[in-house]
Specification:
By secondary structure, the chain is of the alpha+beta class. It is about 65% helix and about 15% strand. Helix 3 crosses helix 4. The N and C termini lie far apart (about 60 Å). The relative contact order is 0.12.
C-alpha cells in the first residue's frame, strides 16, 4: 500500500519536473508542440486534440502570453500544420519539422543582421 503511494508520488514529481524543465529551457514553439503531443490522441493518420483550449489557456499551460501563442498558432494554421474540424484541433503534419524550419530561419535572420 505504502509502496504504491510512493510510486504514484514519484511519478507525479517526475512529470512536474519535466514540465518545469519544458517551461524553463524550451522556446514557445517547442512548448506548444510538447503540449499538443501530450494532449493529442491518434485518429487514423492524424492526431486530434479533443480539449477545447483558448489561446489564453494554452499560454497559461506553457508559460507564455496569449499574444505570443496567438501569433504562433496563426503561423501553424497558415502552414497547414494545424486545422480545426468540428471544434477539434487536428495536427496535420509533424510539428517538429515546421519548428525546426522556423528556428533555422530565425537563426539565419539573426546572423544576417
Amino acid at each position: 500500500m505504502m509502496f504504491g503511494l510512493m510510486k504514484g508520488l514519484l511519478e507525479k514529481l517526475r512529470k512536474a519536473t519535466s514540465q518545469v524543465t519544458d517551461i524553463a529551457l524550451r522556446d514557445v514553439y517547442k512548448r506548444i508542440t510538447l503540449l499538443f503531443k501530450r494532449l493529442a490522441k491518434p485518429y487514423g493518420n492524424r492526431q486530434i486534440v479533443e480539449e477545447k483550449l483558448t489561446n489564453t489557456e494554452i499560454g497559461e499551460l506553457i508559460g507564455a502570453s496569449r499574444e505570443v501563442v496567438s501569433r504562433i498558432m496563426s503561423k501553424l494554421y497558415v502552414c497547414g500544420c494545424l486545422s480545426k474540424e468540428d471544434r477539434l484541433l487536428i495536427i496535420e503534419k509533424e510539428l517538429r519539422i515546421h519548428i525546426e524550419r522556423e528556428q533555422l530561419a530565425h537563426t539565419r535572420r539573426r546572423i544576417a543582421g
